[in-house]
Amino acid sequence: xxxxxxxxxxxxxxxxxxxxxxxxxxxxxxxxxxxxxxxxxxxxxxxxxxxxxxxxxxxxxxxxxxxxxxxxxxxxxxxxxxxxxxxxxxxxxxxxxxxxxxxxxxxxxxxxxxxxxxxxxxxxxxxxxxxxxxxxxxxxxxxxxxxxxxxxxxxxxxxxxxxxxxxxxxxxxxxxxxxxxxxxxxxxxxxxxxxxxxxxxxxxxxxxxxxxxxxxxxxxxxxxxxxxxxxxxxxxxxxxxxxxxxxxxxxxxxxxxxxxxxxxxxxxxxxxxxx
Amino acid sequence: xxxxxxxxxxxxxxxxxxxxxxxxxxxxxxxxxxxxxxxxxxxxxxxxxxxxxxxxxxxxxxxxxxxxxxxxxxxxxxxxxxxxxxxxxxxxxxxxxxxxxxx
Lengths: 275, 103
What we know:
Chain A has a domain at about 170-240. The longest helix of chain A has about 30 residues, at about 45-75. In chain A, the strands form 2 sheets. A two-stranded antiparallel sheet of chain A has the order 1-2. Chain A has a two-stranded antiparallel ribbon with strand order 3-4. Chain A starts with a helix and ends with a strand. Chain A is mostly helical and about 280 residues long. Mean pLDDT of chain A is about 85; it is low at about 1-35. Chain A is built from 11 helices and 5 strands. Chain B has about 100 residues and is α+β, with helices and mostly antiparallel strands. Chain B has one domain: Glutaredoxin. Chain B is built from 4 helices and 4 strands, in the order αβαβαββα. Chain B has helices at about 1-10, 30-35, 55-60, 85-100, and strands at about 15-25, 45, 65-70, 75-80. Chain B has a two-stranded parallel ribbon with strand order 1-2. Chain B has a two-stranded antiparallel ribbon with strand order 3-4. In chain B, helix 2 links the parallel strand 1 (about 15-25) and strand 2 (about 45). Chain B is globular. At the A-B interface, helix 1, helix 11 and strand 5 of A face strand 1, helix 2, strand 2, helix 3 and strand 3 of B. Strand 5 (about 265-270) of chain A pairs antiparallel with strand 3 of chain B.
């Protein structure tokens, strides 16, 4: 599924809340065990904090610059599969190891300042480890920005222990909304389990709750209501067995046409892009 | 996936079958070049130049490629995010057979 992967890369590149191009990190199931994490707290010193934030940014930037250059060369090869293969085999992707080591050293010194927050967010997307999830929830569970980290916390700690900590301390509406979204998305995936462990009605109720209680919360350049309504539509009118909603549009050359023009034929509808 | 799509279009040329795309590229001129160069003979809707265009939004598509199979009566029969070509072929064969037997 090369095209699929490439889109993931492309999307990662244009999302502002993510570090530049890298595939969705392959997150292993990491058991979060209750090891007390040393979080030495340095005395608050504004100048020092600013300096640490700059250090974190530099460490991340040197890696992302190398990665962007690598990706640019890769993209320049266009659709030439053979050339792409040779390139990936002869020019290894830049490794984040150095940046990771720098940030981990900084976290050992202080895991609760702004620099630590930025380091943890990046590490969780790059090399998630139980200790990072734990540090994040121990030090930043009450920070409203944790709303943007709910998905990564769930993926990095499937046991749910880290998420439970966030939930227990959540009061911010955005955080609560994102927790509700995360719960609904997990329940939706249960529909595919064999046998399903959730009913469709249960899953739909979770999305309906989001629509009624957290409609206005920003989500993926839209709102939680729009995202939830999209899923509800997918589970209802776009379900297998339902008549496909018509599409009225124009082709690439600008000629108008409709999906229903092809009634009477078996239609393979392919959502694609040349990326 | 282009080679597989081209082979489907060729294989099913005389069958009640149509491959339709919804293209979410941003540069229309560039995609027209790709279409010509790669001989993508099937028709595609223009999704407004974005993965969050009107059609992919209406269909709540968030992974690419996403494929829907729709039968002769317009009923959605199969969908998949990411495509397993063998599975797709099997489902397609089933629907074409059904269409040809008139059921």
